[in-house]
Amino acid sequence: MPFANHLAARVLRPSALAFAVGMTLASSAAFAQSNTTGSIFGQVASHEGNAVVITSDTGLTRTVQVDENGRYRFNSLPAGKYSVSLQNDGKTVSSRDNILVTISAGSEVSFGAGSALAKNLEGVQVIASSLPAIDVSSVDTRTVLTSEQLSKIPVARGIGAAALLAPGVVENSSYSTNGFGNIPSFGGSASSENAYYINGYAVTNPLTSLGSTTLPFDAIDQEQVLTGGYGAEFGRSTGGVINIVTKRGSNQWHGGAYVIWRPEGLRANPRNNYFPNTGYYPKTDGTLYWYRNKNQYTYTTYGAYVSGPLIKDKLFFYLAGEQNKQNGNSVASFSNSTTAAATGWNSYGYKLPRWTAKVDWNITDQHILELTGVSDKVEYDSSRYPYSYTTLAKSNTKTGGVYTKDGGNLYIAKYTGYITDDLTISALYGRQTLEHVQKPFGYVPNCPFINTAANHSTVPGVAYPSCQETAVSGILLPGSNDKTHGYRLDIEYRLGEHDLRFGMDDQTAESLTGSAFAGGYSWVYNWQADPSVAIDSGSGVASPASAGGYGTQGYFVSRAYNTQAANVKTEQAAQFIEDRWQISDRWFMQIGLRNEQFTNFNGDGKPYARQRHQLAPRIGATWDVFGDSTLKVFANAGRYHLAMPNNVAVRGASGSLITNEYFTYTGVDSSGNPTGLTAVAVDKSKGRTCPGGNAVSTNLECGQSRDPRLVAAKGLKAHFQDEYIAGMEQQLSSTYNWGAKLTYRNLRSAIDDTCAQVLGGECFIFNPGVKNTFVTLNPDGSYKETTYTNAQLGFPKLKRQYYALDMFIEHQMADRWYGRIDYTFSRSYGNTEGQLASDLDTGAGGQADVSTTQDWDLPQLMVGANGVLPNDRTHQLKAFGYFQLTPEWRFGGNALVQSGRPRNCTSHYPTADAGLYSGAAYWFCGLSGSGTAPGSTGYKAPAADYAFSPRGSHGRAPWSYSLNLNAAYTPNWLDNKLTFQMDIFNVLNRQVATTYNFRYETSARNTPNSLYLRELNVSEPRYFRFTVRYDF
């Protein structure tokens, strides 16, 4: 099967090329299609025929008349293979077989004069089904991967991994989910800004927008990766779109089974991780931090499928299922915490049962009904044991662990009606339920969680036991789940040279979610090098020494609460209109307008944010330069909106309790609770203290229910981006195409939260970088509106810009081989990543509070924030393909070379201003001193090398080089039904850090971070994957 790239280039055999030029095949290219269908179109020579008939592999038959200009088209065809026949007064005069229809694309099939020429074209058209024409009516940029293509390229079995084959798509190692893997970033956007579809229904994670539902990899028929310029039917994405169409049954019976094995014995050892050489900690600098050599696992997959007709030409089914299992063990990173050491060895197992079922009913040739079911679940079972870094050995006494289960089922129904040759109507309805279960080992409900994870946090010679046996700090709210339901309606009408589309879609996402510390709260033990420096000067928390006890040595403890729980909801609706206009034989234009509405509800079911009448124009044009589909020039421009996911309401609009109350202590009891507590004084004038005590909260999340009018800025605008693309594609020869395109993206509006000092201790969701109006409560219970300019808030203008040059050359499948090379030069620059904050990754992933990141919380956090953004990879070179050496032997390869992620250095702000966060999160580098005025009590001068350190100013992570190879043997003696395949990933075994810990100081001022510049997210070592499959 073919690989259809984002411009879908076609090759004609020389015997037909002159004829094709003469007929200006592209003149019939205007067509419409949805996100699950495609088109067949073409031109018929004068007097050769007056009707065209198509027949699918399910027996679906449609007939259209050839118009007065010799053109015909079939819109809204399910993806798959078709035969196309030309008829003259009811008699077939020519036919073409194996015409492949791909998602949102057109397959061109034209008929010439004379039987001899028609015979020559017969061969061309069969090849054209595998090598589509340059689609001169396509204004978007896409990559379409077929199931056969995916089976021949050495790529990880996941929809996110497959998307990385597309130009401009990079892997963001700071965000991943079980079952999905690392989540890609498209065109400089945050990883949460993508949209995912299965058979036309949106399956993006409803809680966080990170990742999506997935399915058995073998159930994918086509994966479309849209990287820009998509039409008005797509929305809710400012990154990219991954659009999956599943396999379906046909009139032929098919089935098979497969086993996939990734043995640990052939996997290279992960390289160990070491403390960086900071110069401040001679006892640990350069020593072993994480013994990764013992991180081992074996991965197996068992799968089977069957498909065929239940009633020939009428009713068909496809059923696939697979069980993925991963069993292994891992070692926790080094810590002087006795609690961490007690659970440092993890023996775990994953089970990922998945199935996909599809039923297609050709009620008549004019009416089709499709039913889809998908199940995607992830089970994780962990058992933890003590581990000693002294002996590098584990104990056999189980001390911890957890069982989790996530996922659920998805059901989709779609109707398509071909009412007339010119009118098509389709309607879709979907529903999904995802459940989340957590069962920690040894959980004691009434015992606080003891946290001694910070390095040097415990007093030498003092034991820190724990009455809370579980090692899981956060306990999931029982009954947690996510639910979505929605519908879509599309109408397509052909009017002369115009293909008009009208549509609407609506989806509701609900999440019952939340968590709290095990036992309700946690005792967090900590230490700072200088006992006289304030623990949290921004919140007014005094120094440890001021409260006596172990505080005179820098040791202190906080009673921490982090309780977030709510049943929240988001409603998203849209309407669109689009005209695909064939202006002339060589010029084509696509004009569309999308109107979107978003409403976010808090835990009380009250709306706290609404966006209405969000108009998103889309316009694109193509020029078929020579009129023969051999050179295409195209351009498009559009606006794209994105809603806030449900997680925003859980913390930002539904009454979270996130506080710390600081003490010094003189001892620890047998349950791990501190004794001899003395409260550390708090300056309440800083505006970070909760009512009735000394508990401080950065965002004043003190557990109170929030009035929805006081949550978000009045008239809050949606997150949206403008995009401009211009490019060309050219057929160089019968087998080679090349192309280039320029892309510019500009984030025009974003949503985040802020606690700017001018707001007097209040926190709001707002639009960064512009004027905002906030509603506050007067003492008498009335409401007051106050408008602040961006200058009054103290922020810079919002900036995230991405520009790129993409170039490719492709050899179509001919002469037994296929290959493609992409090169991308890009730049992602600004003061915000978008909805996420990857730069805050210190080893456990980036900040995942989507649309409520640390950015924009305070003006001081944005000083120096402008620079090269974390998803920037200046250079990317991708190459993949395969070679069919003989009918029995095939070889494939997949290579990636790219420059590294930008590096930073962050520390405390130069001055300990009121309301500042206590943390090394500011764009300065070095030891910051006390931040107080010279001569004041406890004053410490900053280090001589302490300096302003803008984002991206500390070089790059190393270049990454990845080479994957495979070989497959399909013996003739079993009728080519049995396949043995071996894939080798990361052949060169280059294990490269993709990012680093950028925090120069700890959460305490003037205290060096012993983990500054520790390597993070090192690429996976070399491993082998063996596949045995039988297909009939």
TrEMBL record:
Residues 245-344, 354-602, 605-991 form the TonB-dependent transporter Oar-like beta-barrel domain. One of its GO terms (biological process) is siderophore transmembrane transport. Keywords: Cell outer membrane, Membrane, Receptor, Signal, Transmembrane, Transmembrane beta strand, Transport. The keyword Nuclease does not apply. It is a multi-pass membrane protein. Residues 141-241 form the TonB-dependent receptor plug domain. This is TonB-dependent receptor. It comes from Dyella soli. The lineage of its organism: Bacteria, Pseudomonadati, Pseudomonadota, Gammaproteobacteria, Lysobacterales.
